[in-house]
Design a protein that fits this description.
This is Arylsulfatase. This protein has 15 helices and 29 strands. The longest helix has 34 residues. The C terminus is likely disordered.
C-alpha cells in the first residue's frame, strides 16, 4: 500500500520538506524471526532417524532434539499440490494444483495456475519487510509457462520471491540438472568430475543469498524456501555416502517394517498398541498393479542384492542432502541467527511407489509409458546412484518407509499423506526435544509462519479479494501439552481419484486406488477409521458405524464442491494404453501451427519438452539448413538425455541421427558421409506404420542430404515423453547429459560451420520434396 506523503511541496525546493519514509518499503517488526523451510520430496515418516528410521539425518536430529517433532502432520500425497499449499495456505485444488504441473488439465482445480485470489505468503512477507528466497525445486510454474518466451507472471519472482535458483519441473538429474536462475534457464556451473552435485550447489546458492542480505541490511529478516531434489528420483549420491549404508537393508523391507515400528513406539511417535498394516493392503482390482509389493521371501538372491542396493543409494542421497542443510544451519549458528530463525524441516508426501515392484534404473520409462526390464536393472546394479542411472527403488521400500501405514505417495491413506515434520525456534518456543500429536496439514504452514512473524494476511491483495486461508496456525502447539486438542477440525483429501476426509478424529477413505482406471466413482466402497485411536488405519469400522461413514462421505462432497475438486480423474497411465493416450491428450500441448511446422534457431535456450514440437507417437520430419566447411562437427539438434532422446550430429566425417529409446541399448543410429562444403539441407523422416505391444511407434527412419535419401533403418519411438521435465530441445548443442554415447565430448557444441535453422514438421504429408518443405517453413519468418 502506498504511504501518505507527509512533507510539504512549494514552488521552490528551498521552501519544501521531503519525506523519504513515504517511499521506503515497510520494515519488519522489531525482533521478527528469519524463516527457513526445508522441504524434501517423497519421504515416508519411517525413513528418518528422528522418527526411528534407519536413515541418519544428523541435522534434522539436532533440530528435533532442540525443538518439536510432529507425529500427525499431513500433506496432499503429491509434490506440486503440497507445494502449492506452502505457497498460499489454501487447499491444492483451490490453487489449481490437483496434480503435478506436468499433468495439468483444463479444469478449474487442475490447471496449475494459482489464481490472483490466492496471493502467496512470499508476497505478503516481502511487503512486510522480509527478503524472500526460493532455492531448489519449483514445480509450481504452469506447464504452459515453462518456455523462455512465455509469461513469467507465475515464476517465483512474480510470486513474491526476490531471488530464485533451482529447477522448474518435478525432478531433475542431480549430476546434470536443468537449472534456472531468477527468470531464465542457465547451465550448471561445473561438472560432476569437478565435484558437482545438485544438493551441494543449492546449499551454496542459499548461503550466498542470505549472506548478501546480511552484509547490506543486517537487521532485515529473511524467508528462505529450500527445496532440494532429494528424495525424489533419480536417487543420486556420492559413493562415500552410499557406502555408509552397505548391508543395512539386507534384512528386507518386511523385516524393516517390524523393526522400525518398535522404534517409532519407543520414540513416542506412535501409541504402543499401533498395529502394522498388511504389505499389500488393498483388494485386487482396486489399485494399479504397478503399486503391488513383491514379498521379500519370493525374491532370488540377485534381486535381494539389487533391492538392498537401491535402498542404500536412497539413504545415502538423503543423508548427503541433510549434510548440505547442515551447512546452512552451521552458518546460522556461527552468525548468531539460529535461535531466532523459525526452521520447518519436512517432506511433501509419502515415500514414492513409482519405482514399480522391481525398481528401475531409468525412471523415465514410467513417463514414456514403457515397462521396466528387470534383467537390464540387474546389469546396472553397480552403477546405481551414479550418472549412468536414473534410478528408483521398488514399491517394497516405499511401503517400508511409510510404516506402519497403508500404501505410499499418491494414496490418501496415511502412507501417502502422513509425513515427517520438525520445527525448531528456540526464541519462540520453550519446548525442547518433545513430540506433538496434534492433527495438522500442509495448509497450516503458511498461517503458522505468518503468526510467528506477526504479519496478518490481507483481505485484499493488489485489488483482488482474497480467498480465506484453508489452514490454521500451529503456533499454539509449540508450548501446548503433547496430547492437547488440535485446532484443526476438518481436512479433505483427493489424489488421482482416491478420496479421503478427516473430521474431528475420524477418517473415511475410498477403496479406489489412484490412477487405477476403475472409474465408477459412484459405486466406490468406503472405509472408516477412528483415527484418534487407530493411527495406522488398520481397523475398518464402516460396518459398525454406518451413520458416521455417511456423515463423512457427505462432508467430503461439500468440501469437494467448495474446493473445486471435481471432476475426478483416475486414468491408469501405466499398463492401460487407452487411458494413457487419453491422459496424454488432456495434457497441455503447444498448439500446432496450421503448417504443422516449427522453426528453431541456434544461440537459444533449450525448449521444454511439452512446448517443443511433439514427435511422440506420430510421423515426423526434421530439416536442418546448414552451411558446412571441412571442419564442421557437433550437434545440430538434440532433445533428451542418455535415458531417452534423439539427436542429429556430425562427427568423424559422418552425419548421424541417433534415436535413444528410453536408454535401452543399443541406440538406433543411421549415418552417411558429410557432404561437401557449402549450404545443405540435412533431413530426417520417420513414418509411423504401426505400434508395438506398448504403443511405441514402429516404422522406417530415412536420412536425407539435400534431395537424396542416403540411409534407411527401422526404429521404434516413444509414445509418452523422454523425461518428466528438463532435458529440452537444444539447437547447436546437447544439454549436459548427452543423448548419444557416440559424442566425443559433453555438450558437443556445433562449430566449423553454421546452423541456419532447424525445422520440425509433424504434418501428415509424406516426405516428398525437401526443398519445398523448407521454403514453406522459412516463409513463416
Amino acid at each position: 500500500m502506498t504511504k501518505e506523503f507527509k512533507g510539504s511541496i512549494n514552488l521552490d525546493v528551498r521552501d519544501s520538506v521531503s519525506d523519504w519514509d513515504a517511499f521506503l518499503p515497510e520494515k519488519a517488526p522489531k525482533g521478527a524471526p528469519n524463516v527457513l523451510v526445508v522441504l524434501y520430496d517423497d519421504t515416508g515418516m519411517a525413513a528418518w532417524s528422528p522418527y526411528g528410521g534407519r536413515i541418519n539425518m544428523p541435522t534434522m536430529d539436532r533440530l528435533a532434539n532442540n525443538g518439536l517433532t510432529y507425529s500427525q502432520w499431513h500433506t496432499t500425497a503429491l509434490c506440486s499440490p503440497t507445494r502449492s499449499t506452502f505457497l498460499t495456505g489454501r487447499n491444492h485444488h483451490l490453487n489449481g494444483f490437483a496434480s503435478i504441473s506436468e499433468s495439468s488439465t483444463g479444469f478449474p482445480g487442475y490447471n496449475s495456475h494459482i489464481p490472483p485470489s490466492n496471493a502467496t505468503m512470499a508476497n505478503v512477507l516481502r511487503d512486510a519487510g522480509w527478503s524472500t528466497f526460493w532455492v531448489g525445486k519449483n514445480h509450481n510454474v504452469p506447464i504452459d509457462e515453462w518456455t523462455a518466451g512465455a509469461s513469467k507472471k507465475n515464476w517465483p519472482l512474480a510470486q513474491g520471491y526476490d531471488r530464485f535458483y533451482g529447477f522448474i519441473g518435478g525432478e531433475t538429474n542431480n549430476w546434470y540438472p536443468s537449472l534456472a536462475e531468477d527468470n531464465r534457464y542457465i547451465d550448471q556451473p561445473y561438472t560432476p568430475e569437478e565435484g558437482y552435485h545438485l544438493s551441494k550447489d543449492l546449499a551454496d546458492q542459499a548461503l550466498r543469498m542470505i549472506r548478501d542480505v546480511k552484509q547490506t541490511e543486517p537487521e532485515k529478516p529473511w524467508y528462505l524456501w529450500f527445496c532440494p531434489g532429494a528424495n525424489h528420483a533419480p536417487h543420486h549420491a556420492p559413493e562415500e555416502y552410499i557406502a555408509k549404508y552397505k548391508g543395512m537393508f539386507d534384512d528386507g523391507y518386511e523385516a524393516y517394517r517390524e523393526w522400525v515400528l518398535a522404534r517409532m513406539v519407543e520414540k513416542g511417535i506412535l501409541p504402543a498398541d499401533t498395529d502394522l498394516t498388511p504389505l499389500n493392503p488393498m483388494p485386487e482390482g482396486t489399485f494399479s498393479p504397478t503399486d503391488e509389493v513383491r514379498p521379500w521371501g519370493e525374491l532370488n538372491d540377485e534381486e535381494k542384492a539389487m533391492f538392498s542396493r537401491m535402498a542404500e543409494v536412497f539413504a545415502g542421497f538423503s543423508e548427503y542432502t541433510d549434510a548440505q542443510v547442515g551447512r546452512i544451519v552451521d552458518y546460522l549458528e556461527e552468525s548468531g541467527q539460529l535461535d531466532n530463525t523459525l526452521i520447518i524441516y519436512c517432506a511433501d508426501n509419502g515415500a514414492s511407489g513409482e519405482g514399480s515392484p522391481n525398481g528401475s534404473v531409468n525412471e523415465g520409462k514410467i513417463f514414456g509409458g514403457y515397462p521396466d526390464d528387470e534383467a537390464e536393472n540387474l546389469r546396472m546394479v553397480d552403477k546405481l546412484g551414479s550418472p549412468d542411472t536414473y534410478n528408483h527403488y521398488p514399491t517394497g521400500w516405499a511401503a517400508a518407509f511409510s510404516t506402519p501405514y497403508k500404501m505410499f505417495k499418491r494414496y490418501t491413506y496415511q502412507g501417502g499423506v502422513c509425513d515427517p515434520l520438525v520445527i525448531h525456534w528456540p526464541a519462540g518456543m520453550k519446548a525442547r526435544g518433545e513430540v506433538r500429536h496434534q492433527y495438522h496439514h500442509s495448509t497450516d504452514i503458511v498461517p503458522t509462519i505468518l503468526e510467528a512473524c506477526g504479519v496478518a494476511f490481507p483481505d485484499t491483495y493488489n485489488g483482488v479479494e482474497q480467498t480465506p486461508m484453508s489452514g490454521v496456525s500451529m503456533k499454539y502447539s509449540f508450548d501446548a501439552p503433547a496430547d492437547g486438542p488440535t485446532a484443526k477440525q476438518t481436512q479433505y483429501y483427493e489424489m488421482f481419484g482416491q478420496r479421503g476426509l478427516w473430521h474431528q478424529g475420524w477418517k473415511a477413505v475410498s477403496v479406489h486406488g489412484p490412477v487405477s482406471g476403475m472409474s465408477n466413482f459412484d459405486k466406490d466402497q468406503w472405509e472408516l477409521y477412528h483415527a484418534d485411536v487407530d493411527r495406522a488405519e488398520a481397523h475398518n469400522l464402516a460396518a459398525e458405524h454406518p451413520d458416521k461413514l455417511e456423515e463423512l462421505k457427505a462432508l467430503w462432497m461439500e468440501e469437494a464442491k467448495a474446493n473445486k475438486v471435481l471432476p475426478l480423474n483416475d486414468l491408469q497411465i501405466i499398463g492401460n494404453p487407452k487411458d494413457f493416450e487419453t491422459f496424454v491428450g488432456m495434457e497441455f500441448h503447444q498448439p500446432v501451427p496450421p503448417s504443422g511446422q516449427y522453426v528453431y534457431y541456434p544461440g537459444t535456450s533449450e525448449v521444454p519438452e511439452r512446448s517443443a514440437a511433439n514427435v511422440h507417437g506420430v510421423s515426423y520430419k526434421i530439416l536442418a539448413e546448414v552451411d558446412l566447411t571441412p571442419d564442421s562437427q557437433g550437434v545440430i539438434f538434440a532433445h533428451g538425455s542418455r535415458f531417452g532422446g534423439h539427436s542429429l550430429f556430425i562427427s568423424g566425417g559422418e552425419v548421424t541421427y541417433a534415436y535413444n529409446f528410453l536408454g535401452i541399448p543399443p541406440e538406433d543410429r543411421i549415418s552417411a558421409p558429410v557432404p561437401t562444403s557449402g549450404k545443405h539441407i540435412i533431413g530426417v523422416e520417420f513414418v509411423k506404420e504401426g505400434m508395438g505391444p506398448n504403443r511405441e511407434g514402429l516404422g522406417p527412419l530415412k536420412l536425407y542430404i539435400d534431395d537424396k535419401q542416403v540411409g534407411e533403418q527401422k526404429i521404434r519411438t516413444v509414445l509418452g515423453h523422454f523425461s518428466l521435465c528438463g532435458e529440452g530441445l537444444c539447437i547447436g548443442y546437447d544439454s549436459a547429459d548427452p543423448v548419444s554415447s557416440a559424442y566425443p565430448e559433453p555438450r558437443f557444441e556445433f562449430r566449423g560451420g553454421e546452423i541456419k535453422k532447424v525445422v520440425f514438421d509433424i504434418a501428415d504429408d509424406a516426405y516428398i520434396d525437401v526443398e519445398s518443405h523448407l521454403r514453406a517453413a522459412m516463409s513463416r519468418d
